[in-house]
Specification:
Layout lengths: L14 H13 L6 H7 L6 H13 L3 E3 L5 E3 L3 H8 L11
Antiparallel strand pairs: 1-2
């Protein structure tokens, strides 16, 4: 996140709210776009607070948004550790 991207946040989410959104995204991986995901949450959350959570999850590389705008869970540390030690696989960072 760049300094010019940071906006004044009026409400910071509570930890239980962040965890609820994380769990919901994991369970419904790639099913919903942002607004539909917000509407389907098990508990009501202010949209601004929801957007702060989504921004945090994007910044921490736990979710991604595909070309259709659907949100998917991409944070799988066990799988990364499994494949990180394999010498037949290589990873080339973007230049």
């Amino acid at each position: 996140m760049k300094n010019e991207d940071v906006k004044e946040i009026l409400r910071y989410p509570r930890l239980d709210t962040v965890l609820m959104v994380e769990l919901f995204v994991k369970e419904h991986d790639g099913e919903y776009k942002k607004s539909a995901l917000w509407e389907k949450l098990p508990k009501k959350v202010m949209y601004q607070t929801f957007c702060v959570i989504i921004d945090y999850l994007l910044y921490s590389h736990k979710i991604s948004i595909d070309a259709e705008g659907k949100i998917g869970w991409i944070y799988y540390p066990k799988i990364v550790r499994k494949y990180a030690g394999r010498t037949d696989l290589t990873w080339r960072p973007r230049s």
